[in-house]
Amino acid sequence: MVEDIGPSTSLPPLLDSGSDRRFRDLIQALLGISSRFVDLRERIGAHVGLTGPQYSMLMSIPHLAARGAGVTVGQLAAHLHVSGTYVTAESKKLAARGEIERLPNPGDRRSVLLQLTPKGRQTLAQVLPMVRNVNDALFAGLNREAFELLRTEMMRLVMACDDALLVARRHALTRES
Question: Which CATH number is 12-131 given?
Answer without folding.
Answer: 1.10.10.10
